[in-house]
Amino acid sequence: MSILKEIVEHKKKEVAKDKSLYPITLLEQSIHFDAPCVSLSEYILRPDKVGIIAEFKRKSPSKGAINLYASPEEVSIGYMQAGASAISVLTDKNYFGGSKEDLKTVRKYNFCPILRKEFIIDEYQILEAKSIGADAILLIASILTDDEIKKFTSLAKSLGLEILFEVHDEEEIGKFIPEIDLIGVNNRNLKTFKTDFNYSLDIFNKLPTDAVKISESGINDPKVVSQLKTAGYDGFLIGEYFMAGGHPEEKCKQFIDAIKNN
Ligand SMILES: O=P(O)(O)OC[C@@H](O)[C@@H](O)c1c[nH]c2ccccc12
């Protein structure tokens, strides 16, 4: 079974359990429906920033442990001071060592847009995203049907959340709908775990013109960001390169400074 399939199977059980422990009616009562969201797409396009979405990532199926005991408070504040445009927080526990608590902590200390990085397969998780203070959610084209994409998009938008729609190939780009704000090309091949940013370059012309365009994964060189920018990408999602080693915020700062000086 592919890793993505395994994660999705696991996620279905997890969501079923969450729903039985904390029914959707209770979850809905905990939501501040009027709480405003910060627009991820607007922050990405801000001319005073370079478009980095810095990710808080403790571990991954491809790498194993990256920075297991990092503090979401310290890292996220450091990312923002370094000049990041937004923060992505993995909330999957089993495969990525994240949690909803991590996202809540990041929310508590930052005003920037926060992306909930999760394998969303159920509307429950979208309500949850709103209740913990996320501004945007990830929808992964390869694990969702056209119907789910429509349904999840309209629920998210009704809550004020933006959507980053992740694709790997042209067929998945075909599932994009105009209500979606951002499209992300994942440079990681989920079968081999290899990353190659040329993938983003090759597919660029096929992307919907109106969406904000993000290149995701395996980015570890400011020169690559410059190349992707020239090609037309607006944003860059970076996790492992910042998180590996002791000081994610310092690496992020050096990286952003290098782009600015390029
Ligand atoms: O750590 P990297 O290689 O910089 O990649 C970050 C991000 O793109 C990656 O974590 C990611 C992209 N899509 C995902 C979907 C689920 C979980 C994680 C991801």
Automatic annotation (TrEMBL):
Q: What class of enzyme is it?
A: lyase
Q: Which GO terms describe its molecular function?
A: indole-3-glycerol-phosphate synthase activity; phosphoribosylanthranilate isomerase activity
UniProt-listed PROSITE patterns: IGPS
Instruction: Give the matching Gene3D superfamilies.
Output: Aldolase class I
Top-level division of the source organism's lineage:
Bacteria
Under the heading Pfam families, the entry gives: IGPS
NCBIfam families, per this entry? PRK00278.2-4 (NF001377)
Which named protein is this?
Indole-3-glycerol phosphate synthase
- Species: Portibacter lacus
- In the UniProt record, the gene name given for this protein reads trpC
